[in-house]
Amino acid sequence: MPDRGGGPTGPRIRAGRPSRRVRTLLVTLGVLAALAMAFTMFAGFWTDWLWYRSVHYSSVFTTTLWTKIGLFFVFGVLMALAVGFNIWLAHRLRPPLSAMSMEQQSLDRYRMGIAPYKTWLLLAVTALVGLIAGASAASQWRTWLMWVNGVSFHQKDPQFHRDVSFYAFDLPWYRFLLAFGFATAILSLIAAGLTHYLYGGLRVTSPGSRASSAATGHLSVLLGIFVSLKAIAYWLDRYGLAVKSSDFKTTGNWTGLRYVDANAYLPAKTILFFIAVICALLFFATLWRRTWQLPVIGFGLMVLSAVLIGGLYPAIVQKFQVQPNEQAKEAPYVQKNLTATREAYGIDHTKVSEYSGRSSTDDKTKLRDQVGQTASIRIMDPNVVSPTFQQLQQIRNYYGFPTNLDVDRYTTKDGKEQDTVLGLRELNLAGIPKNNWINDHFRYTHGYGVVAAKGTESDDKGRPVFTEKNLPSKGDLGIYQQQVYYGEKTTTYSIVGGPQKEIDYSDDEGEKTTSYTGKSGVNLDNPLNRAAYAVAFNEPQILYSGAIGKGSRVLYNRTPKDRVESVAPWLTIDGDAYPAVVDGRIQWIVDAYTTSNGYPYASRTTLGDTTADSLTANNNSRAVVAQQNQVNYIRNSVKATVDAYTGDVKLYQWDAADPVLKTWMKAFPHTVKPRADISPALMAHLRYPQDLFKVQRELLTRYHVTNAQTFLSGSEVWQVPNDPSNDSSDSVPPYYLSMKMPDQKQQVFSLTTTFTPNGRDNLSAFMAVDSDPRASDYGKIRILKLPTSTTVDGPKQVQSQFNSEPSIAETISLLSRGHSQVEYGNLLTVPLDGGLLYAEPVYVRGGTLKYPLLRKVLVTYEGRTAFEDTLDEALDKVFGVKGSEPPSTGTTEPPASTSPTVRQALEDAQKAYDAGQEALKSGPDWDAYAKAQKDLQDALRKAEDAQSKVDKPRTSGD
Q1: Residues β-bridged to residue 643
Q2: Range(s) of the domain holding residue 76
């Protein structure tokens, strides 16, 4: 009987080794895991390619991809070859084995252990360093594209007289090459040194020479290369002084050479360059001398020189030459910083005017009448009334409005432009009756319609006066495509266009369904696409769901800012995308910036810090996209639009002179359309961007002065005041409103802000920029500077006066009774006849009403304060007179009664309106609705013309 225990006559079972079946299973699982990982990586790549192709920006994807691949392979191969060659060379230069010391005997075990795997080990090491170097180089694709496509600024720095493009485009690439060179030299030196040590070329404890002549020569060359690179670094450091940031105690973080840089660091860098060149030559000479004595001495002298010349000498100059007479020494360099910073941020043409802060007339009637001519005071605060829009115009729970609405200009029926507060009725998935995969991604896919209200009016109950409302939305905006598939609140994917119908909107007759007919998104007819998106979205139902069929398309990456950032990754995106109805479509308008941190002498700023205010603190979606970016050059070079229905992204060249934009347009040709392609209808809704304005106002707190001595003294430093309306420590946001500055003849849509002295609350300046691109002075910054000999109340002081006025405080207390809550709106500042008018709407959010209603308006002018139910009443009380109507000459007789022509026209208008409503109910029938709207406009125009003839004043002179 055989011994089953594995004796001499039985089979041997190897302990610990798995059976063939287990090994096969493990291999299979490993292969499957590898395939799954590979497909996951492929799915990410494939879905990215499909998305870029769907938005017609595939060239951005391919250019970026091939640039990364090229950099990865070129620098990865260079690093691998350099390190591998030096390992091979060190091995080839190994000395013949002789009498073995104890050190060599211990190393011999390692040599014998790796001997069978030397080739594989060499490949593994070189592949590892190559992969790391390649990945690092691939991340520099922006630096490479800017260097290879850079165009001239046609402007030279004041120190070295090199074109600004050298600092913005060339120097960053040279620094990367230098860093790569240092990494290559150090890794090669380490690899070669270890190889020489392993094979006896270097000895630590053995008697006799510590290094063979071959090892000495090899390592000396590598050290010579390292020191040569250090010499190049010293030379580039000279130019780097022009873009070096430093913390200057009187001016903050600024860039450029100071006295100590020009007179100590610059000559020190030049001297160290020559010392490093000599030291490198000494290392190379070791090939013939075979001794390290001179190069080691030279290297030690270089290090000592770096400490004395590069560190100690500048400190001595700063201590004994600069500090005793700092202003005189630094003034010429600060002047260069002033000029460069103002140019780099586009504030060099800022107009600063003296403003008395006191009214020049005692004629109260004249002042009262000037208010309406000076500004359209907006009492509907877009940052407060969103809940009111939500309550009155949400209509269905699955719609929602953004937390902060937007301000734009729209033409009324009488042909006048008015400031308008508006928002889109976007999809709100949290309000869906029942959340499931079909509802979330197939049925509830889009929002519907624009809701707009007059910015300067409210009704008798404090509600907005809507100019576009209801569902479907109708009003002053006319006919437009109302479905909103792309918006700020649309952050999930939707699958549309297939067999599953979508909910368009609901009315009294029930749900209206639709099916997406746009060409946006990616087609899911292809099984490969479905599998890729199932992996990308981690949703296996995409692979097999019957709700997906012929024509199904997946829409994703749907917020306007994300879409623009994806198709133009070289742009910095403004935090506030805003909607506009343009040529019958809802278009999201996105401002985008080209930036650089390599403008010589211009001070740097961090975008996230500079653009932060009370709105971004409470709503991070309003923050600039690249918050951590440090820049010292910025231009609003691109205006972008995103169609709310199709998702189409268009980029328009706005600043044709910007060299950074020209560089990127060379790198990505045909992605940016010329400015001439902007239609007049779109131009009417473009505006000066908020984030650029906030960056400029922050810089202007210090750089409004043009004299270096004043700048250094710090006596004219301003600050952006904190938001007084919510008693926060965050900066007050800038406000859009139509107004005119003292040197303007008529109101212009403007962006405004105030300044206070550093550490104080009184007003030091008022700033406005023309924000309507149709105006001749678009982008012109005007600052009204208040006198320092007298004080004018600032926003915080005005708010404190409001709150401390006994009668006002009593009224506020009454409004706050029960569960009611008082909310202050935007505190608007308006220059008026030498003085400053402040106006602030006050809202009450009642106990049962969960939305704010306008209850009071606060107005103050020259110490006179009013707190009334309406803006007109408050103005009348402040000035002590009622606003008058425009005067006419002679005695006006009353108009005649309405004529038969007017009555007939009004009847026709009513019929056209009824026809339009019927067209909306049936289908809706948009063609019939368009015809009815045209008939309605014709009838109203006919009635207006007829009535104007009847109402024409007949004066006593007739």
Answers
A1: 587
A2: 61-210
Residues 6+ apart with CB under 8 A from 827: 724, 725, 732, 795, 798, 799, 838, 839, 840
Please state which of the ranges 100-109, 357-366, 577-586, 888-897 shows the lowest mean pLDDT.
Answer: 888-897
Is the CB of residue 871 less than 8 Å from the CB of residue 859?
yes
Angle between helices 20-54 and 58-92 (to 10 degrees): 130
Instruction: Say what the pTM is.
Output: 0.85
Using CA atoms, how far apart are residues 21 and 19, in angstroms rounded to an integer? 5
Cα gap 539→518, rounded to integer Å: 24
Helix/strand/coil for 364: helix
In whole angstroms, give the CA distance from residue 345 to residue 322: 29
* pLDDT 10s digits, 460-504: 888 999 999 998 899 888 899 999 999 999 989 999 998 999 998
Based on the fold, state whether residues 101 and 206 are members of the same structural domain: yes
The CA R_g of the chain, rounded to the nearest whole Å, is 36
| Domain end point (choices 297, 327, 344) | 344
What angle, rounded to 10 degrees, do the helices at 293-307 and 213-240 form? 20
Average pLDDT score, the chain: 85
The residues that bridge with 824 in the sheet, in sequence order, are 842
Specify the 3-state DSSP secondary structure of 859.
strand
How confident is residue 914, by pLDDT bands cut at 50, 70 and 90?
Answer: low
pLDDT of residue 305: 83
Which candidate, 840, 843, 858, 683, places its Cα nearest to that of 773? Answer: 683
CA–CA gap between residue 917 and residue 933 (Å, rounded): 10
Alpha-carbon gap, residue 841 to 824, rounded angstroms? 6
Q: Which tokens sit at 551?
A: 């024509």
Are residue 535 and residue 636 in the same domain, yes or no?
no
Extended beta strands in 300-430, E state: 351-354, 399-400, 406-411, 417-424, 426-427
Q: What is the pLDDT of residues 610-663, one digit of tens each?
A: 888 888 877 776 676 776 788 999 999 999 999 999 999 999 999 999 999 999
Name the β-bridge partners of 423: 451
Q: What angle do CA 559, 560, 565 make, to 5 degrees?
A: 100
Last residue of a domain, one of 173, 190, 210: 210
Tell me: pLDDT of 585 over 90. yes
